[in-house]
Structures are given as C-alpha cells and as structure tokens.
C-alpha cells in the first residue's frame, strides 16, 4: 500500500498530512471534511483536491492532523501540506504546473509571521501617548 507523509506551517499552525490509497475521503482531526464546522476552512482545504481531477481524487484518502494558530492559518497550512503531498504521491510534473499556475503559495508557503511584542508596550508597534506637542 502506497502512502505519503507531508507537513506545512503557516504562522503558528502546523499541519501533518497522510495521503494513502483509498476511496476519496478527507479527515481533519478525525472529523470528515464534509461536516467540518467552518465553511471557509472546508473550501480552502478542498482547493488542491479539486484541482487534482475526479479520476485521481477517488483513489486517495487524506488524513490531516493540524494544531496551533487560528482557523485560517490552519486552513492555509493544511492546503499547502495536501498540495505538496499530492505532488509526491502522484509524482507528476503536470500537477506541479497546475498548482503553481493556480496559486504559487499552495506549494511555496507564506513566510510572513507576526511581529513580536516589544518590551514595556501593549503591542508590537504601539507607543505611549504624549500629552504635549
């Protein structure tokens, strides 16, 4: 039985993906993707699988473990991990071109991070107010 492990990060979210031969099911933290509560999350995660095409989509199962970060950071991390895993699983150069043409971030990732909070301040850039000119 063939399987591929893949991982990706976005901000502080980390997604680990197992892609194996199966019937076209997708699980995120042991919940089927079809009943996952956040619709934007579902749509974002399904992008690489929909780009794959029906003939390949029904031959694989995707099992995802994701933690850390917020909902959209998790969605981006899962999306990137699935796209990278599908490329390894099918070993297709055409699939890579399709993903890059659709959205480069799907494979390359997004390096942006939040700026750390500074000493004696409320946030990263906020300063104390002055009452004079």
Automatic annotation (TrEMBL):
Listed PROSITE patterns: RIBOSOMAL_S9
Mark the transmembrane ranges. Answer: none
Per UniProt, which keywords does this protein have? Ribonucleoprotein, Ribosomal protein
Task: Quote one Gene Ontology molecular function term.
Answer: structural constituent of ribosome
One Pfam family it belongs to: Ribosomal_S9
Q: Which GO terms describe its biological process?
A: maturation of SSU-rRNA from tricistronic rRNA transcript (SSU-rRNA, 5.8S rRNA, LSU-rRNA); translation
GO cellular component annotations of the record: cytosolic small ribosomal subunit
Q: Does the keyword Mitochondrion apply?
A: no
Q: Which superkingdom heads the taxonomic lineage of this protein's source?
A: Archaea
NCBIfam families on file: PRK00474.1, uS9_arch
**Which family does the record assign?**
Belongs to the universal ribosomal protein uS9 family.
Output the PANTHER family linked to this UniProt entry. RIBOSOMAL PROTEIN S16 (PTHR21569:SF16), RIBOSOMAL PROTEIN S9 (PTHR21569)
Q: What is this protein called?
A: Small ribosomal subunit protein uS9
Organism of derivation: Fervidicoccus fontis
What are the leading ranks of the lineage?
A: Archaea, Thermoproteota, Thermoprotei, Fervidicoccales, Fervidicoccaceae
| Gene name as annotated | rps9
């Amino acid at each position: 039985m063939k399987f591929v492990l893949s991982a990706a990060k976005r901000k502080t979210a980390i997604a680990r993906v197992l892609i194996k031969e199966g019937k076209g099911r997708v699980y995120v933290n042991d919940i089927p993707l079809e009943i996952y509560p956040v619709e934007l999350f579902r749509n974002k995660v399904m992008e690489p699988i929909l780009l794959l095409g029906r003939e390949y989509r029904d031959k694989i199962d995707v099992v995802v473990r994701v933690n850390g970060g917020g909902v959209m950071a998790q969605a981006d991390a899962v999306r990137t991990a699935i796209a990278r895993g599908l490329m390894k699983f099918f070993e297709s150069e055409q699939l890579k071109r399709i993903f890059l043409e659709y959205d480069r971030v799907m494979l390359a990732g997004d390096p942006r991070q939040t700026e750390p909070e500074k000493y004696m301040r409320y946030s990263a850039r906020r300063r104390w107010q002055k009452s004079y000119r």
